[in-house]
Amino acid sequence: MEMINGFLDILFWALGIYLLLNCAYLAFFALVGLFNLPKSKKEADTYRKVVVLFPTYQENVVILESVKTALKQPYQGAFEVVVIADGLQPETIIHLKELGARVIEVFFEKSTKGKAMQFAMNQLANNGFDIAVVLDVDNVMSDECLWYINGAFEKGNKVVQAHRIAKNMDSSFAFLDACNEEVNNHLFRKGHAVVGLSAALIGSGMAFEFEYFRHLLNNIGETVGEDKQLDFMIAKDKIEVAYLNDVYVYDEKIENAKVFTKQRTRWIASQVEFLKKYAFEGLAQLFKGNFEFFNKSLQTFLVPRMLLLALLFVMAAQAFFNPFGPSYRFWIALFLSLCLTLAIAVPKRFYTDKRLYVALFQIPRAMLGMMVALFSIGKAKKSFMVTPHSHKPVEKETH
Q1: Which of 106, 348, 355, 391 lies at a 20 to 30 A Cα distance from 298?
Q2: Is the pLDDT of residue 398 over 50?
C-alpha cells in the first residue's frame, strides 16, 4: 500500500511540474510580448512581382468576394491573384476568370491544402514571380498590405507572417475566437519576435520568397497541418520568419461551438502528429545549436490553452480531497497565473468592449469542444476537415 501511495504522489507531482512548465513558457512570452516591435516599412527600391494564392475547397460564394477585394489592392509593382480551385462549380470558375483572377484547378482523391499549393506553385514556376502570398478563402488584406510585405523582403527576409486579425466579432463565440487569435499572436508571434525568435506561421497571411516556397512544398509530404510542417522545415534551414505586427490580414472567426470543435480537432491532430515526428529530433537539433527548431518541438508538448485551463481547474478542485501530490495552493496558484497570462495577452482595446465579458461565458462550451476534439483526432487523418465560411464584411476597429 505504501508503494502505491508513493507512486501516486510521484505521478501527481510529475503532472504538477509538467503543467508548471507549460504555464511558465506561456507567461514568459506574455510578458516579453508587452514590449514594442519596430514599425513595418513599405519603402523599397525594388517592387517585386507577387502572386496572391487562394487555396479553395468547395467555397463557391466566399471566394468571389475575397478575390474582388484582393484585386483592388494598391501596389506599385505587378501582382496576380491565383485561385487554386478544388471542387469549385464551373460557373464559379468562369466568374473568377471574368473578374481577372487566374484559376488553377486541382483534382485529388484525398484533398490537402499542401498538395493543392504544391501543384499550383509548380504550374506558376516560369511566370517570374518573386513573392508568394498565401491567404485563406475568407481573408481580406488591409490597405497597402502588399507594399509592406514587399518592404519586408527588401530587408532580406525570405518568410514573413502578417498579423491575422478578426474580420467579424458578431457573436459571443466569434468574439471569444477573436480573443484566442490575439492571444496566439501575442505569445507565439509578437512575443517570439521581441526576443529574436521566429514567429509561428498561422496558415494564411504569410508570404514566402517564391522559389523557396516551391522548394518547401515539393518536400512537404502529406499532413493535416501544412503550416506547422513548414515551420519545422524553415527552422531546420535556420531561416527566420519575420512578423509584421502592424500589417493586418482579416480572417473570419468561428460563430458556434460545433465548427469550433471541428477546427480544433484538426489542430490537435496536427500537434500530435508533430509531437511524434519531431520530439526527439528537437533535442538533436538543440545539441547542433539550432534552438529555433528545439523551440518549435517544445511547443508540441504544450497543452492547448482551453484544455490547460480546464485541467488546472479540475486539479485545483480535486486537491482539496486528494492527499497525493501538490497541495491545493499550488494548483490554485497555477490556475490563477494562467488566467493572468491570458489577461496580459488579450489586447487592451478588448477590455473596453462589453462583448468581451459576455464572451467569457462561452469558455465552458469551448472547453467542452476541446475535450470532444481531443477524442476525435482520428477523423482528421481520414478526411479533409475544412472549416466552413460565410461572407462577412470587415468589422472596423481601432488597433
Answers
A1: 348
A2: no
